[in-house]
């Protein structure tokens, strides 16, 4: 563990979203057994919260067609908290049946992104959420709310902070305590993180706010650091940085889990994760999808892994 | 410009090190005309401080054999501050002759890295610096001091903060005001930045401290952000992220200038640089060396570049 930074929390919780958000954008189907192998490896590294799959139409997202099978492999792990993305009542029924701990409902803070993403207005999305909330009643399955385009919209540009706080209030009104701000297209900046976290502390003081960043413009971890500096304790990340940017083919997507764990530990913030094992999971993710992923720590190795003076060429300055 | 962050400086100065630190590790010689084209492009983007070349033995570093020619192309630019890395008296004579504004002297904070890098003890390095200081007297050429392995050593592991403050004091004793901490192998963390900047404010209160980070473990910009939070106003970066890691082939090296400018502007810190032009320079750097560079903003484009809703595939969450 590194030196503690004044004002930072002593520990943080990382939800691994690679199995859902990361794999979802892979064109080629990843065999169910390999998904299970990757999740098992992440559990072995010490991660305990997962966005594990998505109960969507197999026609719309063929990669997630094995949602129930993936859940079945882990639903008896009482030490793991498993959530699934759920777009509608049909998905909610399947998710409840599959034994998820919580369903993640999502809408965008900007109307045009919501229309593009789920083909309905934000108002219609919230009508659907009310129906899902009724389905969930008495099942013991919790609801979580995700706010997409919380730091900017690829179609509309800036997103007003009020659009985010209003949506958070609506989630709270539906009984959701856990609310995630999603940096859908890498538009978050540390200044916007500070501004939005401050506004949410006023608007929904009893909510548990989680932050999800993309590294599209290289500042994903800076945004997480800004979140820590504001006392945020819950973050989402994707092993190896799995999951590209849907808008720019050459750009990076999700912040990688192992780089986040490295930064947190070096900032005195405990995560409960074994970084060495986690970089092994990142390399497994690379092997499974068959190409290089953007995570850095798995390539560079541990910070204090010393080299032999014979083994390197000189840098000269 | 983004929202200002409390405690951050209103402006910062970025020294571009791509032409020296970035290109130096390129095995294939980059034609002098292309180096000049790249530097001109960076000047056109608004950068005004350059580590432009290195006056080293052409046998040791063939890439820098055109140091005098590169300098000759820009020495009359009175609005640009041009420095060169100088390893010994012979290099210093050539640098003074070539008309540099300042010579950068360098030694490592750890003995084994100094031995490996320049094949002499730190004590011997400082004896050499005293000789260079005498050469520089009366020429109008300033001296700057760089501290390599300031955040950790690939051979020795952790580097004591006292090793850094002691070296900074020795540079001050030789009359150097501008002192750079170099994160030679990507071992800097924000906590170490805070610790070292605090210690230097005590040890050399009148020095102008600059920070140079590598993105080897993904946290280069987080370290720069931590530097800003401590009031540091001077940073070094390399266009496109030119310059790999000499220790790990797959790992990233220098923080990219355009990503740093993006972060600074979005944090309310002015740099005087036109980011659009600068991403053009980054693409030029990619073209010149013929491969993809790690810079992110040049791939993702401006933050507020809005897409058409017809142009993208959906992200679904």
UniProtKB/TrEMBL annotation, chains A, B:
NCBIfam families: PRK05692.1 (NF004283)
InterPro entries assigned: Aldolase_TIM (IPR013785), HMGL (IPR043594), PYR_CT (IPR000891)
GO terms classed as biological process: ketone body biosynthetic process; L-leucine catabolic process
Origin species: Paracoccus alkanivorans
Family, per entry: Belongs to the HMG-CoA lyase family.
UniProt entry keywords in alphabetical sequence: Lyase, Metal-binding
Ranges for domain Pyruvate carboxyltransferase: 12-279
CDD domains for this protein: DRE_TIM_HMGL
Protein name as it appears in the record: Hydroxymethylglutaryl-CoA lyase
GO MF term list: hydroxymethylglutaryl-CoA lyase activity; metal ion binding
């Amino acid at each position: 563990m590194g030196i503690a930074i004044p004002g930072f929390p002593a520990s943080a919780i990382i939800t691994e979203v690679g199995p859902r958000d990361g794999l979802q954008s892979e064109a080629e189907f990843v065999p169910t057994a390999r998904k299970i192998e990757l999740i098992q490896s992440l559990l072995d590294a010490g991660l305990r919260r997962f966005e594990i799959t998505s109960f969507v139409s197999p026609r719309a997202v063929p990669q997630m067609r094995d949602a129930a099978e993936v859940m079945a492999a882990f639903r008896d792990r009482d030490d793991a908290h498993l959530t699934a993305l759920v777009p509608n009542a049909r998905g909610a029924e399947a998710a409840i049946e599959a034994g998820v701990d919580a369903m993640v409902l999502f809408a965008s803070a900007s109307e045009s992104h919501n229309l593009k993403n789920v083909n309905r207005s934000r108002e219609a999305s919230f009508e659907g959420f009310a129906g899902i909330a009724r389905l969930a009643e008495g099942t013991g399955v919790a609801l979580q709310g995700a706010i997409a385009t919380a730091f900017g919209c690829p179609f509309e540009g800036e997103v007003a902070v009020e659009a985010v706080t209003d949506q958070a209030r609506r989630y709270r009104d539906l009984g959701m305590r856990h609310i995630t701000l999603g940096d859908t297209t890498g538009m978050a900046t540390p200044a916007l993180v500070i501004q939005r976290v401050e506004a949410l502390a006023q608007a929904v003081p009893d909510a548990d706010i989680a932050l999800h960043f993309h590294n599209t413009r290289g500042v994903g971890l800076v945004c997480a650091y800004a979140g820590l500096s504001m006392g945020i304790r819950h973050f989402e990340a994707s092993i190896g940085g799995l999951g590209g940017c849907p808008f720019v083919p050459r750009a990076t997507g999700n912040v990688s889990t192992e780089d986040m764990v490295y930064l947190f530990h070096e900032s005195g913030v405990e995560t409960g994760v074994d970084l060495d094992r986690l970089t092994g999971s990142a390399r497994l993710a690379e092997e499974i999808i068959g190409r290089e992923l953007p995570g850095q720590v798995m390539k560079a190795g541990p910070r204090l892994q010393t080299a032999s003076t014979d083994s390197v060429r000189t840098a000269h300055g």
